[in-house]
Amino acid sequence: MRKTAFLFFAVILFSIFIFTANNSNATIYTINVQSNFFSPTPLNALVGDTIKFQWLSGFHTTTCDPVVLPGTSHPASAADWDSPMNSGSPTFFYIMKVPGTYVYGCQPHWPSMTGTINVGTGYKYWSGSNGGGDGSSWSDPLNWLDGTVPVATDSVKLDNSFYGFTYSVTLPGGIANTQIANIKIYPTLPNLILLTLPATNTSATAGLTVGDGIGSPYDFSISKNGVFINQSGAASGSGVVFINSADSIQLLDSAIWNHNCTRGQAGITNKLSKASNTRLGIFRYDMPTSSFASITFSNITYGSLQLLGVTANAPYPGKKYITTGSSACTVRGNYYVDAFCYDSTVMTNNLNVGGDATIYGKTVFAPITNPRTLNFNGTTLQNIYCAELGAVQTGKVIFNNTAGFVIKNTFSIDSLTMTNGNVATDPTAYLAIGFDVANVGSLTRTGGIVTGRVARWYNSGVTSAALDFPVGNSTTYKKATVAFTTAPANPGYIIMQFVDNGINATDLPIPLTDGAFSLTRRTDSYWLATTSGINGGVTDVSFDGNGQNGITDPANLRVIYSNDGNTFSLQGNHAAGSGTTANRTLVGSYFGRFYLGGNGSVNPLPVELKDFVSTTIKNEVILDWTTGHEHNNNLFEIERANLLPYQDHNSSDLNYIKVGSVPGHGNSNIVQNYKFTDKNSSIGRYAYRLKQIDNNGTHNYYVLGNEVIISNPVSFTVSQNYPNPFNPVTNINYEMPYDGKVKLTVFDNIGREVKTLVNGNVAAGYYKVEFNASSLSSGIYFYRVNATSGTQVYEKVFKMMVVR
Questions:
Q1: In 3D, which of 785, 632, 802 has the Cα closest to residue 700?
Q2: List of residues 6+ apart from 203 with CB closer than 8 A
Q3: How many CA atoms, within 13 angstroms, populate the side-chain half-sphere of residue 134?
Q4: 3-state DSSP percent of the chain in helix, strand and coil, to 5
Q5: Whole-angstrom distance, CA of residue 568 vs CA of residue 381
Q6: Is residue 773 within 8 Å of 726, Cβ to Cβ?
Q7: What does the CA dihedral 471, 473, 477, 480 come to, rounded to 10 degrees?
Q8: Mean pLDDT of 45-69
Q9: What DSSP line would sit under 247-301, residue for residue?
Q10: Pairing of the two strands 28-33 and 91-95
Q11: What CA–CA distances, in Å, run from 363 to 342, 355, 390, 397, 614?
Q12: Span 703-762, pLDDT tens digits
């Protein structure tokens, strides 16, 4: 009954009083148990510490249980103990999980052998209205668990131990300076905790002073769903001051420090932790009472950085930030520029961004000799969002991330350098180089490919040199260029994309004649050019077929135009190409699909595979395929892969092996049919592909569009040996629909056993057994098959002949 009452009482108090042991520097205190004393006493400890009772001599029972030993006591929700201490039980451990006073004693020497343990939390805890306070004021003592307001030597923890929902805490206003040793804001998800230094605080020195001079653990630490809002209304200074250089700030996993940047950030941003777990902690600049501020970015490292700009009913720009500095600023996580935010920088070094970038406001670089460079240099895929007025103007952008980029909304750049990493775009978005008459844009590329859409700006009334479009697929650079030899009537963009349909080609529905040159073939892949704003003018174009099969005569490689992929034409004049690049001049104002073209002997763009299908008969797989056109086709190798349970036939990690080959037809302009039979396959799932190999050794793969399944036989079957008659080797096939036992025996013509070929358990499947009769004379022989599986029995006898 006593235990039941105690547990009921503990459950009632749990939500209000119990602490989880969270002492990262927990200590083990040893109390010696000797014949006549405990040592030491009293003892001061923290929640999470451990008390170790160590027996030295005598026989005792160490007790903290008021019912067993009246006079002992512990905090209401703490567990009691009653442990024997002797040579057979020399140690006893107790973890202090609840703050308060523990009075313990020893039987049979109570009260002469007694001690007291005072357990604190190490922190001042917020209890809010649960403690009788107003629920929000820092200076209300009833909002604190122990009924006193924190002082300079206190460590403060705002969590949900005593306040099981979202709450806000407001520091004092006026000229008050609140000073504490350190603070942790650690909400219990999904709740939030907000700590605010209000605009009404006008302390000339600081509204909040933090620090113990040690710097570890962090003096100001915020975890997810925790927010500190610095709205200090002081005329100068940062509003928040740290005591010395050893003090530090830790923003964990999207925790937020919201900073009124009109107060300045000296002594704050240089204390931000650079640990990997703070990469997504958010440092947010805001201007609650103004629309202009200057921020020093020189040699600062942020986790994630946000510039806020929205102001109710404010015209653009709502907030203007002047960012300054001659040394690089690094954002290890995400970078965010709010709508109605105007980032006007006079930095002369990089802003390095390692995460996603969201640029909804305008980013303008002052026209100085060495403008700031926005350097995207993460190590994981970076998404770039840009909307409304979002653009990076009169400055530089570098893409340097081997993991690549995705442009989520159209992103306009004045100067772009591509060093590493491919650039994909969402279907309606494009990467725009240049954006108006004064900023036509520039491109420097040493690496990386735009696998989506890229745009170049062209001014009206001006002819232009060829501008590069750095497009291609994920592995191959397939550059396009467009030059206006006759100026366009209106300025705007040409938008280019490479559409990857493989490295092979297809016959044109109707041959084309370009002078004396006949074109009958075109590539399956093409370059798609569209426009935005621009019209009129005459262009020269070029397209690099790097990686395309069948380019044998670059000088005669043709550019073919189509607006729909069905009807093809030749626009402008052919100009000799070089390498793998085809050129066309005086194309006019034609924008759509551009293909490369050739014929059966000049740039034949070889092997066109029309069909590739499979048929299964028992354990034989029959593959049929057809080509419509071949050039220098040496052979097809047939490859097969066993599919594991988690794989399908399109998996990229299949282990293919060669199972056969079929000669090609070399050069052919007519339909050619091919067949290959893969015999005697085991039960299972398979993928097949063709490896087409040219005479020069280059090859291409064609994967069968479906998986092939070899299923269990439907019945017991034994086949006549083949060949028959034979000399000296023949084969016997049999099929087992279930797991079972098989015996296959050979007899001579008078019934004597000659040889046993199989005798044992076999799994369901298809089997071929070889019989070598080299030691037998010519004549008639018999073989008998006995098979059993459960209650099913099968037996059959066949005759065979050995011929010498």
A1: 632
A2: 174, 175, 176, 177, 232, 234
A3: 8
A4: 5, 50, 45
A5: 39
A6: yes
A7: -30
A8: 90
A9: --EEE-TT-EEEEEGGG--TTTGGGB--SGGGTTPEEEEE-TT-SEEEEE-TT-E
A10: unpaired
A11: 6, 18, 7, 12, 58
A12: 999 999 999 898 899 999 999 999 999 999 999 998 999 999 999 998 899 999 999 999
Could you report the per-residue pLDDT of 610-646, keeping only the tens digit for each?
789 999 999 999 999 998 778 788 999 999 999 998 8
Query: In the structure encoding, which two tokens stand for residue 762, read together?
Result: 């076999």
Of the candidates 669, 666, 664, the one whose C-alpha atom is nearest the C-alpha of residue 638 is 664
The two three-digit tokens of residue 557, written as one number? 């490689």
What's the whole-model pTM score? 0.70
| CB contact at 8 A, 377 and 400 | yes
Beta bridge partners of 446: none
Look at residue 17 and give its three-state secondary structure.
helix
Distance CA 306, CA 653 (A): 41
* Mean pLDDT taken over the chain: 88
Distance from C-alpha of 522 to C-alpha of 516, rounded to nearest angstrom:
18
Whether cis (ω within 30° of 0) applies to the bond prior to 150 is: no
Q: Which amino acid does the sequence have at 101?
A: T
Task: Kindly give, in sequence order, each residue whose CB lies less than 8 Å from that of residue 270, ignoring residues fewer than 6 positions away.
Answer: 300
Kindly state the tokens that stand for 356.
């996603």
DSSP state of 15: H
Q: Highest mean pLDDT: which of 163-167, 365-369, 782-786?
A: 782-786
For the record, the structure tokens of 313 come out as 């009913």
| Residue 675: count of CB within 10 angstroms of its CB | 10
Cis preceding linkage at 40, omega within 30: yes
Label the pairing between strands 351-353 and 182-185: unpaired
Q: What are phi and psi of 281, to 5 degrees?
A: -70, 135
Higher per-residue confidence, 405 vs 315? 405
CB distance 139 to 149 below 8 Å = yes
Instruction: Please name the residues in contact with 563: beta carbons below 8 A apart, sequence gap of 6 or more.
Output: 590, 592, 593
CA distance to 184, 500, 574, per residue, from 519 (Å): 74, 21, 13
Where b means 16+ CB within 10 Å and e means fewer, 138-160 reads bebebbbbeeebbeeebbbbbbb
Q: Which amino acid, residue 790?
A: G
- State the residue for tokens 């797989």: 621
Q: Do 472 and 517 touch, CB atoms closer than 8 A?
A: no
Question: Alpha-carbon dihedral of residues 456, 460, 461, 466, nearest 10 degrees?
Answer: 10
The tokens 């594991």 sit on which residue? 644
Q: Residue 595: how many CA atoms within 13 Å on its side-chain side? A: 30
- Degrees to nearest 5, angle at CA 224 with 220 and 230: 50
